[in-house]
Specification:
alpha/beta
Length: 415
């Protein structure tokens, strides 16, 4: 298995999704295992004292520089992969909005007959966990008494950090009996969970591995992407007519489940497509389409092992600076504190973030078909208008970064 390898593989060929997964999650050289540092701004921002969003952006830039200066004073690193999340930028207000959503829905449907059981995937620094538990303890003490928070974390380094967060202060130490940190991949999950529970997957789908598919413009037959890694560690992309069972199943499920047209290489007039393909120097295959096969497998796990779950997920429905293709990812690294985007996912494993947009119209239909559950999709802004105390993040000008940032994100929840 790739996960057990301690060195980057050579003289092998593998599917695109296996390459992406190995690049991001290999425990010995993967991006999330070895390279990532999550930005923490220190004290929460005082939005009421800020003139407008521009000042927030300026102060955020200052804190970014100070944070990285402190890291460089300890260990200089030109290739440090530093990134932020809404949980960290808008602490504690973002986590409080999630807590309010969970507690109010729990009280409507499960309290007092069942515990409030929360599973969080990819919990980063553990900040969201603490913000949620702090708010439930302070505002909903009867709910807090029945709250159990379980983190499922693939990264050993991040799992250790989350544990240390619990012991950092007297306030957080009070949550210890309510928290369990499970250091494993959700894709290795084999424990049946009969209880009703919530599953939080916030900015998780974008880093799930995808397969690449290109189509013959004349026959419309799909071909699946592979990468060959030679003895020197160089990458060569190629496509074959052999579609593995996972990708083949995704294409079948999507065709059956999706109720609305979606963007893909074969959309549009077949005649025009054939004419374009006959032009001099035209490619003999369409642009690649990146399909979320790992996400489909995640829905399988929810259906099989968490049959009574309710899912809350937030992710990007569009991304800037993507590589060429349909549902194509952004592939980027940081060098000397600057973001460096590249044009292919086949890059040195572990040094590049590979993040995909989520087509919520498609994955909502697939999730419904695979789990039998109903869902609601809203914009990130609309979700926060409903569940956050938006006055906490309003600047003097009336601008509100909590609402205006992440315009390219959506929220999907089980109802």
């Amino acid at each position: 298995m790739l996960r057990s390898r301690k060195e980057r593989p050579k003289r092998v060929k593998m599917l695109t999704r296996d390459f992406v997964e190995d690049s991001l999650y290999n425990p010995n050289y993967g991006y999330f295992s070895k390279q990532v540092v999550i930005f923490s701004p220190g004290e929460p921002f005082d939005f009421h004292s800020m003139r407008d969003e521009l000042e927030f952006h300026h102060i955020l830039g200052q804190r970014y520089t100070e944070f990285e200066d402190r890291l460089d004073a300890i260990a200089p690193n030109d290739t440090r992969q530093l990134w932020h999340t809404p949980t960290e930028l808008f602490r504690p207000y973002y986590g409080e909005a999630i807590a309010r959503y969970l507690a109010e829905n729990y009280k409507l449907s499960h309290h007092p007959y069942h515990d409030l059981i929360i599973y969080e995937l990819g919990a980063g620094n553990g900040t969201l966990m603490l913000n949620i538990l702090d708010h439930i303890r302070d505002i909903y003490p009867d709910v807090y008494a029945r709250t159990k928070f379980k983190i499922i974390e693939i990264s050993s380094a991040l799992a250790t950090m989350q544990t240390s967060q619990l012991s950092r202060s007297a306030s957080s130490r009070g949550h210890t009996d309510h928290v369990e940190i499970i250091n494993k991949s959700i894709f290795d999950w084999e424990t049946y969970v009969p209880e009703q529970c919530w599953v939080l997957a916030l900015e998780v789908f974008d880093n799930f591995a995808h397969d690449s598919i290109r189509y013959d413009p004349f026959t419309e037959q799909p071909l699946q992407g592979n990468v060959l890694i030679d003895n020197n560690g160089d990458f060569y992309e190629f496509y074959t007519h052999e579609i593995d069972p996972v990708a083949s199943r995704f294409l079948r499920v999507r065709n059956v489940a999706c109720s609305q047209p979606f963007d893909h290489p074969l959309k549009g007039s077949r005649i025009l497509r054939n004419l374009k393909a006959r032009l001099p120097f035209a490619a003999n295959l369409t642009l690649p389409e990146y399909i979320p096969t790992r996400l489909m497998q995640f829905f399988d796990i929810l259906h099989e092992y968490f049959p009574h779950h309710r899912l809350l997920t937030s992710d990007f429905h569009s991304l800037p600076d993507t590589i060429k293709g349909y549902n194509a990812p952004v592939v980027q690294t940081r060098y000397q504190r600057r973001v460096v985007p590249v044009s292919t996912p086949y890059v040195q494993q572990g040094y590049f973030d590979i993040l995909f947009p989520t087509n919520f119209a498609v994955i909502e239909d697939i999730y419904r078909a695979m789990t039998g559950k109903l869902t609601r999709v809203s914009s990130h802004e609309d979700f926060l208008k409903r569940w956050a105390y938006v006055e906490d993040t309003r600047t003097k000008s009336g601008e509100n970064p909590l609402l205006s940032w992440y315009k390219n994100a959506s929220v999907m929840s089980t109802v």
